[in-house]
UniProtKB/TrEMBL annotation:
Belongs to the TAM41 family. Its cofactor is Mg(2+). Keywords: Lipid biosynthesis, Lipid metabolism, Magnesium, Membrane, Mitochondrion, Mitochondrion inner membrane, Nucleotidyltransferase, Phospholipid biosynthesis, Phospholipid metabolism, Transferase. Its EC number is 2.7.7.41. It is a peripheral membrane protein. GO terms for biological process: cardiolipin biosynthetic process; CDP-diacylglycerol biosynthetic process. This is Phosphatidate cytidylyltransferase, mitochondrial. Pfam families: Tam41_Mmp37 (PF09139). GO terms for cellular component: mitochondrial inner membrane. InterPro entries: Tam41. One of its GO terms (molecular function) is phosphatidate cytidylyltransferase activity. It is found in: Mitochondrion inner membrane. Pathway: Phospholipid metabolism; CDP-diacylglycerol biosynthesis; CDP-diacylglycerol from sn-glycerol 3-phosphate: step 3/3; Lipid metabolism.
Length: 265
């Protein structure tokens, strides 16, 4: 009010900032100034407290502020607390959207679902007060901005999955990234380390599909597929089968396997 008195209506200026603060505290905790001329455009903006904003970003008390921050926006003045709680807000939006989507869907459907979260239950969507195609318009016009906004949430989700893999595979993931200067980050902030690892789009392919420290190497350690003899334990189940079942049954079992392989081929 001190900086921009003309933005506030006359009665608000007469009653003072304490009056504005009391009105602002009424849920959802925002005071709006409408029809404000600024640099050749007319804007509407809301005033809230950092505590109220962070609370809604973390807890979705009303989704009034958190929902608006599900969409692309430009940060004019950064704040560390808001930046941290906004990351939680974006991750929550991704999780909530995924729970309502089928197992396979295009990326645009995910962004549309996220953008629609804050409009669910909004009475204005039932009245001629909002464009029914608003969500679709938002996503179509800001597709690249949505990708940029939620890019960080996807590595964090992948990082959580990576960290929950069996320990044998987790150790191989770490070995794949050894020598890249991430060891210090692992000791300092394990979450940041796994987010960095998960942000590498090739990591899952390397770990799950190929390389001497990959998932196949757990099953068949001679992962360069050369003709050198693999360690004994790669063949030990088959050798133990001959001992435990006998030669006759082992031949019968192997013949059945070969028959299935041939049919499948």
């Amino acid at each position: 009010m001190q900086q921009h008195p003309s933005h506030y209506p006359l009665h608000a200026r007469v009653l003072g900032s304490s009056y504005v603060s009391r009105v602002q505290e009424v849920s959802p905790g925002v005071w709006f100034n409408a029809y404000v001329p600024m640099k050749d455009v007319t804007i509407k903006y809301g005033v809230t407290t950092i505590d109220n904003l962070c609370s809604d970003l973390l807890n979705w008390r009303t989704l009034y502020l958190a929902g608006r921050m599900h969409k692309p926006l430009r940060i004019i003045k950064d704040d560390a607390r808001v930046r941290l709680t906004q990351q939680v807000n974006l991750t929550s939006a991704v999780r909530a959207a995924l729970l309502t989507l089928p197992s396979s869907f295009p990326q645009e459907d995910l962004f549309s679902r996220i953008a629609s979260i804050s409009y669910a239950g909004d009475p204005r969507m039932l009245l001629p007060a909002e464009n029914r195609g608003k969500v679709g318009n938002i996503v179509r016009k800001q597709g690249p901005q949505f990708k940029e906004l939620y890019h960080g949430s996807f590595p964090r989700a992948r990082a959580a999955l990576l960290r929950k893999l069996p320990d044998g595979l987790v150790q191989r993931v770490k070995a794949n990234f050894r020598g890249r200067g991430l060891e210090a980050e692992l000791e300092k902030d394990e979450s940041a380390y796994w987010t960095r690892v998960a942000s590498d789009e090739e990591v899952l392919r390397r770990v799950l599909d190929e390389g001497e420290l990959s998932l196949p190497s757990l099953v068949f350690p001679d992962t360069d597929y050369s003709l050198s003899l693999p360690p004994f334990y790669a063949f030990s189940p088959s050798l133990k089968g001959i001992v435990s079942a006998g030669l006759g049954k082992s031949i019968r079992y192997s013949s059945a396997k070969i028959g299935k392989w041939w049919s499948g081929s």
